[in-house]
């Protein structure tokens, strides 16, 4: 997992439920070191207090020397540097004592105060916490102090000051207590420092190395909590710190009495410190036992690296924290999610701090998983959604109400009343879905009477392999999935696959092996998931490539909801981003739609008009694809030579891969009605070629109304035309075909020489309807070219279903031809004849005249 860090605290109200968006609105802060680094003169001074803020008799009213304190803020008086926060200890505590020492030497406090403040130079070196005690801390303060008369602007003040300090030489303070207040926050007592006796040389230019231990005790705990919360919420832009002390002084054996001193400092802007930067260097989730009865919870091991820009040394005892998350409403109490503890933390000056934190989630609170009012999401949904989408999230850390026994009570009191918002960078799960396949798929199309809202649906087995983050080391079982998925083809949106209903799922953990990380294989069966096509042009391009055998890769971009069984119980993860490829194999192995190989049988005539036939037939064909489809209603145009000559309709059929038998199809033959004059010309020509055994083809084309409820699909497919050989009609007798496979509608013939007649055995493909021959004008040939005789007959006769005999038709012999001699020679035997002519046929109200050419007709010759 990538390192996570925060460069600025994202602050909000302590009990405010924080989303990533609300957190980001909080003003950021720059980092401010606690102390100046070695070699830098401390840049602090007393604050100028405006006259309208303090009463003129208030001891805080600055003397005329107050202006000279600005020299403390500018080093040599020319370069301004940032003040450092530990000046509260190093300057306020120590400075108060030093000023009091100097004041005690003279009888002219105003002049001396001015000299002391302008000439004083304090260089803090280090502030370290030697020990955390039950009542506070023992701090070690190290600094360098001297008086520099050259910094005093007034000549007379400078002269008197140098003389007085030369006479006094050294001054010693007795043990004293320095109290620090926050006047602008109700005069809160921030703390008290017990300062030991200090001896300093106050002569001009004499350097004093100060090194002492001070016992620091916290003051008003409630006040400190209010101040801390205001700082965390970004409401602190200025801090006025006031230090007060009563200091007893002496110079040698001479007692100088007790001096009361008050000094103030102002911190504002970038001088106010912020939460330090941090990196999450380790994050690991795993199962842990949480009770003696075998109940288990979720553990988290976190390692942090915090930036330490301060010369502070400190050893922090083990601490306990509550981890909280935002609730539904802005003003609802935060939800306690987990317990966290730390080991001993050793802080070294100017060295990054390594912190190991262990957390335990014992159970998921009901308030965390319940949907919020007027929302479909729970607080947990919002938290996980932000995290999984890579957005910044915020958790809240508060001192535990059940602290470690090693934690002093005063530390627990402060920590338990302060809530710290901690920014947590989201984790984008790029390429989480490693594989996405759909097998045993079935497409369902709406019927003719379907509602307009009815859409095509997809059923099938979804198999998804998802990579698991390396931080996730606990068992998980997927029980159900739900998703809304956009379907793209070549980066263009095809449509929307609606999986808004929960689908049962199973999962299997695949352990890490070789260089491959662990993954989770999930399987789910979807049933009739609606597929809404939004771009018919994209669909047309897709189907065209599919029909030509090309593999099609559909891109699925989904928001997935997953129900998980974990050690914490059932958990719903919403809006998990998922993306994968859904491969659709085209018609493979070089096959085309001609591989349908349809065969038509059991033909019925359902109705006729003068120009049309309505037929019904059972069709057998081969589906060369691996996909199945359930079709409620589907209509297709039938074309020949580019002209529409009819249409076919299938209702409530199921098409499976491979052989499909006895599919009921209705068709309409109406060349003039569909194709106009051109169709009226092409129709009879096609019938003539077909019954004569020519190699004919039919084309099939989808149109806008092929699926009435989905005109976009029909429109998309309308530019695709599939051409196949014309299916052969099966007839009742096995011997109804010639050796070359051509259909035989005239099975045999018998010629009678004496009566000059011929009688034919006719085979009709119609099982339920009678066909009528209205007239015949045909010539029989021997050896393909030699005429035998001519038949002209204008009286209608019927051709019954199956095999039937025609009436004896009169023959006008070609007596002087070779063909006639061949017939006479075959008297009592057989010969093979050809026939060419025109035939008028009628079926119900429909009639048509076609030409016919037949060859290899077996003819018997009788006397």
Automatic annotation (TrEMBL):
Pfam families per UniProt: LEA-2_1, LEA-2_4, LEA-2L_5, Tag1_C
Domain Tag1-like fifth Ig-like: 740-851
Native source organism of the sequence: Calycina marina
Keywords recorded for this protein, A-Z: Membrane, Transmembrane, Transmembrane helix
Domain Tag1 C-terminal: 472-585
UniProt entry tagged with the keyword Membrane: yes
Coiled-coil regions, chain positions: none
Official protein name in the record: Pre-rrna processing protein
Region annotation (Disordered) ranges: 1-34, 56-78
InterPro entries in the record: Ig_Tag1-like_4th, Ig_Tag1-like_5th, Tag1, Tag1_C
Domain Tag1-like fourth Ig-like: residue ranges: 597-714
Protein's UniProt keywords contain Transmembrane: yes
Segments passing through the bilayer: 88-112
Segments of skewed composition (Polar residues): 17-27, 65-78
GO cellular component terms attached to this protein's record: fungal-type vacuole membrane
């Amino acid at each position: 997992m990538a390192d996570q860090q925060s460069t600025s605290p994202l602050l909000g109200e302590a009990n405010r439920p924080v989303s990533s968006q609300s957190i980001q609105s909080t003003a950021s802060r720059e980092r401010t070191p606690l102390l100046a680094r070695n070699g830098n003169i401390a840049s602090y001074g007393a604050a100028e207090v405006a006259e309208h803020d303090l009463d003129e008799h208030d001891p805080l009213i600055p003397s005329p020397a107050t202006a000279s304190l600005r020299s403390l803020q500018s080093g040599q008086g020319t370069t301004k540097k940032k003040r450092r926060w530990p000046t509260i200890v190093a300057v306020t505590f120590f400075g108060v004592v030093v000023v009091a020492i100097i004041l005690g030497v003279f009888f002219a406090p105003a002049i001396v105060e001015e000299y002391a403040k302008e000439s004083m130079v304090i260089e803090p070196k280090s502030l370290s916490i030697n020990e955390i005690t039950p009542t506070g801390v023992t701090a070690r303060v190290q600094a360098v102090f001297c008086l520099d008369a050259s910094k005093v602007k007034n000549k007379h003040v400078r002269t008197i000051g140098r003389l007085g300090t030369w006479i006094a030489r050294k001054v010693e303070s007795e043990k004293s207590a320095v109290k620090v207040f926050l006047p602008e926050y109700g005069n809160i007592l921030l703390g008290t420092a017990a300062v030991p006796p200090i001896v300093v040389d106050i002569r001009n230019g004499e350097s004093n190395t100060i090194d002492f231990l001070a016992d620091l005790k916290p003051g008003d705990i409630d006040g400190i909590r209010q101040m801390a919360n205001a700082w965390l919420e970004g409401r602190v832009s200025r801090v006025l710190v006031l230090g007060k002390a009563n200091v007893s002084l002496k110079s040698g054996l001479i007692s100088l009495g007790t001096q009361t001193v008050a000094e103030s400092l102002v911190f504002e802007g970038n001088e106010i410190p912020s939460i330090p930067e941090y990196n999450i260097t380790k994050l690991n989730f795993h199962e842990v036992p949480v009770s003696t009865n075998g109940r288990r919870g979720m553990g988290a091991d976190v390692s942090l690296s915090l930036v330490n820009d301060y010369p502070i040394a400190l050893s922090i005892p083990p601490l306990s924290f509550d981890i909280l998350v935002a609730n539904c409403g802005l003003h609802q109490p935060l939800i306690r999610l987990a317990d966290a503890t730390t080991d001993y933390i050793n802080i070294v000056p100017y060295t990054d701090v390594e912190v190991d934190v262990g957390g335990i989630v014992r159970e998921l609170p009901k308030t965390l998983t319940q949907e919020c009012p007027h929302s479909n999401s729970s607080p947990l949904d919002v938290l996980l959604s932000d995290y999984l989408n890579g957005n910044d999230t915020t958790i809240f850390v508060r001192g535990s109400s059940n602290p470690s026994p090693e934690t002093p009570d005063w530390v627990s009191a402060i920590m338990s009343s302060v809530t710290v918002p901690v920014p947590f960078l989201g984790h984008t799960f790029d390429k989480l879905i490693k594989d996405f396949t759909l097998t045993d798929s079935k497409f369902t199309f709406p019927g003719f009477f379907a509602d307009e809202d009815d859409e095509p649906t997809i059923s099938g087995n979804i198999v998804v392999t998802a990579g698991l983050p390396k931080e996730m080391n606990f068992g998980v079982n997927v029980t159900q999935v739900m998703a809304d998925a956009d379907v793209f083809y070549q980066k263009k949106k095809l449509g929307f696959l609606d999986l808004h209903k929960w689908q049962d799922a199973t999962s299997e953990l695949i352990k890490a092996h070789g260089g491959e990380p662990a993954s989770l294989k999930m399987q789910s069966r979807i049933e009739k998931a609606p597929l809404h096509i939004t771009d018919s042009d994209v669909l047309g391009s897709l189907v065209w490539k599919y029909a030509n055998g090309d593999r099609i890769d559909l891109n699925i971009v989904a928001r997935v909801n997953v129900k998980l069984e974990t050690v914490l119980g059932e958990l719903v993860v919403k809006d998990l981003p998922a993306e994968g490829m859904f491969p659709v194999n085209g018609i493979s192995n070089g096959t085309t739609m001609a591989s349908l190989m349809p065969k038509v049988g059991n033909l019925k005539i359902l109705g006729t008009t003068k120009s049309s036939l309505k037929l019904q037939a059972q069709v057998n064909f081969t589906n060369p694809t691996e996909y199945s489809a359930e079709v409620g209603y589907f209509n297709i145009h039938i074309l020949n030579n580019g002209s529409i000559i009819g249409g076919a309709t299938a209702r409530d059929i199921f098409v499976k891969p491979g052989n499909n038998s006895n599919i009921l199809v209705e068709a309409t033959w109406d060349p003039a009605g569909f194709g106009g004059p051109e169709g009226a010309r092409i129709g009879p020509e096609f019938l003539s070629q077909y019954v004569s055994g020519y190699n004919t083809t039919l084309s099939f084309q989808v149109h806008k109304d092929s699926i009435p409820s989905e005109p976009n699909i029909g429109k998309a497919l309308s530019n695709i035309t599939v051409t196949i050989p014309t299916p052969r009609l099966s007839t009742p007798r096995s011997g109804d075909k010639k050796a070359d496979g051509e259909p035989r509608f005239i099975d045999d013939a018998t010629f009678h020489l004496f009566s000059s007649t011929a009688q034919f055995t006719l085979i009709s493909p119609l099982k339920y309807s009678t066909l009528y021959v209205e007239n015949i004008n045909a010539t029989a040939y021997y050896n393909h070219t030699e005429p035998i005789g001519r038949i002209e007959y204008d009286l209608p006769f019927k051709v019954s279903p199956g095999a039937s005999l025609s009436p004896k038709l009169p023959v006008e012999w070609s007596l002087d031809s070779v063909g006639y001699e061949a017939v006479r020679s075959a008297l009592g035997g057989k010969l093979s004849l050809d026939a060419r002519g025109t035939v008028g046929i009628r079926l119900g109200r429909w009639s048509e005249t076609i030409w016919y050419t037949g060859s290899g007709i077996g003819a018997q010759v009788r006397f």
